[in-house]
What does this fold into?
Amino acid sequence: MILSQLRRHRGRALALAAGILVAATSFTLLTSTVTTSQARTTDTVRKNARSAYDVLVRPHGSQSAVERADGLVEANFLSGIFGGITLDQYNAIKDMAGVQIAAPVANLGYLMVQGTVKIDVSRFLDPGAPAQMLRIRPTLTTGLNRVPAADQYVYVSRNPIKRPTRPPHDWSPSDLLQEDTGHGVYSVCWYYNYNKTDLHIQRADDGGYEPLEPVFIREDRREESPFDRDMNAWLTCRTGHANATAEVPVSYPVLLSAIDPSAENRLIGLDRAVTSGRMLTDRDKPVWGNGERWSAESSYWKVPVVLNDRTLTAGTLDARVERLQVGDPAALPAKLGSPAAHDFVNALRGTPVGHVTARIEKGYPEKFTYPPMASSYWTIGPVDYRRTAHGLAPRPRAGQSPELWRTNENRQFVDLVPEENTGTQYRKVTSHPGTFCFGYLTCEREDYGRTSIPYLVPVGRYDASELPGFSTLSQVPLETYRSPQVTGADKAARAALHNRPLAPDRNLGGYLTAPPTMLTTIDSIPALTKSRRQPTLQDTAPVSAIRIRVSGVTGVDPASQARVNAVAGHIRTTFPGLQVDITIGSSPAPQTITLSGVDVREYWTAKGVALHILKAVDTKSAVLFVLVLVVCALFLAQAALASVRSRRTEIGTLRCVGWTSSDILRLVLGELAAIGLGAGAAGSLLAYVLGTLLHLPDAGVKAALVLPVALLLALTAGAIPAWRATRLRPLDAIRPPVTTGGRPAPVRSLPGLAARNLLRVRGRTVLGAAGLALGVAAFTVLLALTLAFRGEVAGSLLGNAVVAQARTADYLSVALSLLLGAAGAVDVLVLSQRERAADLAVLRATGWTTRELARLTVYEGILLALLGGLTGAVAGLAAVLTIGRGMLQGHLPTVAGAAALATLAAVALVSAALAFPIRAHSRIAPAHLLAAD
It folds into this structure.
């Protein structure tokens, strides 16, 4: 009987089999895709959850309001912290149970390192001139700032220019160049380069030079300023024409920080970045010695240091070159060798002859003839941010006072103050002049027992770019070695930055600051901090931050989380004043920063990203699984119910000839089981092909699951329709499926008649609308879930990677929910049209045209689709609000608009699908339909 029924109703059986095939295959593949996406996401998170350190400890008050509100760690946080954690606190944390590595960083201050940028100007020389001069007028470009720099000069003579064998007292041979013209010997560069302020020229005690009286180059001498560009002007003297290179003096702020070498090596492998010499060791300590600095009798601390091979600051010198009108070339040596050389050179008129450019970082010295002096330090404060419509904006500060650059030694200004310090200031800069005493362990007089200025002894060089890399998705700030990553946030910003990343410049009060470039040991801290004229916080609490690796941590599994939480909690309890951040599972999170009206993107660190993603992906996967299952099951139940409804006459006839309710139940379920087995077999083959094309793992195993899933879905979906079939009575065989009822009322339009037909048989209308309502509701919920998931985990590099991986499964789930719902509604409408074939035949027999009947059917479909679609949209939005209002935060217009578009798409789909039954009915004669009825 089952096989006979399937043969007799081949069309209906094939349609139901197609529905089971689509539902079972889609369910298997989608759940496989969701599961695979979840596995890939989890694997990605676990592989990138462990960064350089698990816990970050900072001094009290070092966490900004933005960090506290948004769960972030500022990208440039270390540059504004100079002390706050005592060595006793560090030692106690290092010895805590569960702490594997505790690596401290103690920022001590910025020193000035002198260097020279060489600019080749040979091509601008006049080859026929015996002596000539060029003026170079540079502008310094650093990121978004352009600052006029000091003029530079080149003097080229055919006469030999040599260094003297016996310089004047207190001057080294590198400070003097002498030109022998045959009519006299002149110090051609010395007067311009050194005699600019109140410098007194002393008589050489050992003879050999003409005694000179003290001179001043300005009779109307005024108070000089470190930002006077003329102070940084320089004259380079050369012999011949092939080597016309201007030597532009520059200074580089170098941050000196103290580390624990052993801990640093174990944390990041610092010892593997050595390029020359050696790395610091635990045996490197300050040594009291003498004879290498001022005189054989002087003594001082010798502090071991290692230096980075790179300055980590950037800038471009873009200069205009002028050929100067010098008059008589033979008179130049005498003019340059006189105390009036400075005014003479500056007054010369020039003719532009070209442009030159040079990168300012190229002047960073490869070797140190003399290590940088530790006689003066500068420390800086943090940046204060305010919220804007675009993101964050640092609050500018007042400009630096020139007094910041005055040393304690004779109250003189520091040589070669970087010009960028006249630019916008975002940080407070504090000066720490050193003591004015030499050769004594303890200073007396005005220095109140402070120690003497130490001598820095380089033991090696390292290159921070050679450090082992960490995952770009989970790296936390390693500002001890790497500059912040800042790029243009839009096309205009990238153009303003000349398509380069924004790098730190030499402005100590600027937004970006260079990481430490010089390292020493923790044991050397007292010799450095106590040599300052005034005591500071660093005397008692020198450590700026502690980075901790916890023992036994392998990722973000519960056991590892418990270990990290235990260590962090112990530190908070023991030292309640310290700021403790758990950084395991963190990821860089781009923040938009507005600098001088330009939006840039800076990578801060979002804490707890990995754990947040794992929880969100588990929730999303579970909801997607349930929704796909419900949509597929209800689609089949709807199709099976419509099929049973269309066979009510047959089932009633069987009841009339003696069939029992159990017979009817077995018949209906048997038909559905047979259809499910056939559809499952075909679906297994289809699933295998699709799984291979979509690169799903274990495509064969997933395809084999289609058969049992199809059978289970068919029987589950057919349970209610089969039960309803057993409720049919024998009289239902002769009772028409569509009956009239109620008081008749006039209908004056086709839309009105369509609406009356929908209201006349409410059960059929509800059945037809239910499929669309279900599809649109599921579409709305899935879309809201997808957007909420992305909004919840996106914003960090790890979260963005997860969203990109999960995108395929999300889109397939959303699209399937709508298509299956619409397919169910179309199936019900087609069967409804078959039920009402006699009604349509009567209308046709009374004079209605085929076009009018088609319009009536289309109106019914549109009204039914609108009813189902709008009901589904409202139900979907209500479901989302019930699940959680946070899902719609910021996405309500998108979700509501998408639900409206889904409703319109359902209307279009139903209208298009009705073309097939309309065309089929138009080919059947009314007499034939009425006779069949």
Summary: The two ends are 24 Å apart (CA to CA).
